[in-house]
Amino acid sequence: MAQKPYPTNQYPGNPPVYSAASYPSAYPGAHSTQVHTSGQSTIVVQQAPVVVTKQRRGLFGQIGHELNQLGRVVSREVDWTADQINKSIATTATGNILSLFQSGNVIQLVSRKSGRSLQIVMGQSGQLVVDGLGQDGAPNATWTVVNEGNNQVRLHNQHNFLACVGGSIIVVHMAPGTVHGIETKFQLSQVGQFIYLESLKERGRHVGILDNGQLKPALATGKEQHSQFGVKLLHSPYGVANTK
After folding, report:
1. pTM, to two decimals
2. Per residue of the chain (244 residues), what is the pLDDT tens digit?
3. Is 174 helix (H, G, I), strand (E, B) or coil?
4. 95-235 adopts what CATH topology?
5. Residues 206 and 223: beta-carbon distance below 8 Å
6. What count of other Cβ atoms lies within 10 Å of the Cβ of residue 242?
7. Domain locations in the chain?
């Protein structure tokens, strides 16, 4: 399906101003509920202790039974502790890549599958959409970060925000000062040198790009290579930029 070019101005500086996308009437409006959940998944493997006893009568048999019972209790406590560690790591993970997502930073998200950037384009219907065919440094392939803590972010290009609604990744125009719903909020997590963007409104659904650069439906996109993005920092109000 052919797409019309997304209108652009020159960059650097702040990204250019684009026309607003109309919020589809079939989708619910914004809500004020905020959800704070985990980001990076870390698996801790802990083998449960095993107590081996011989079958004996009397006192020794009873001792063996009690030791087995104690082993099961310890195993449950280990599993609970590992789960708490996972949650703690996931909500506090930073690392070199996640630290690029400071409020006000302007970044590019380079799809691992297409090798090109997540961009906003004008769809055939005249509505703004996203794909993974953006050129390096193109103004319509830049995203300004709003970081709300716990590795939870909103990403926009001149207030055209990335959003997940009804299993689809869409673009929603939110004027400055507008109260956002949770549909524009994403949980960051990191694997190696790539990040995932998971919807906080629809957990388990991610921003994803197919090999040909087309958008993959979020409802069919988990933590996989289609949902992995490299991050390129183009501009920072803090005076640090990484263009490598």
Report:
1. 0.63
2. 445 555 544 444 444 433 333 323 323 333 333 333 344 443 333 444 444 444 444 555 565 555 566 655 555 555 554 454 444 444 444 458 999 999 999 999 999 999 999 999 999 889 999 999 999 989 999 999 999 999 999 999 999 999 999 999 999 999 999 999 999 999 999 999 999 999 999 999 999 999 999 999 999 999 999 999 999 999 999 985 544 4
3. coil
4. Trefoil (Acidic Fibroblast Growth Factor, subunit A) (2.80.10)
5. yes
6. 12
7. 38-92, 95-235
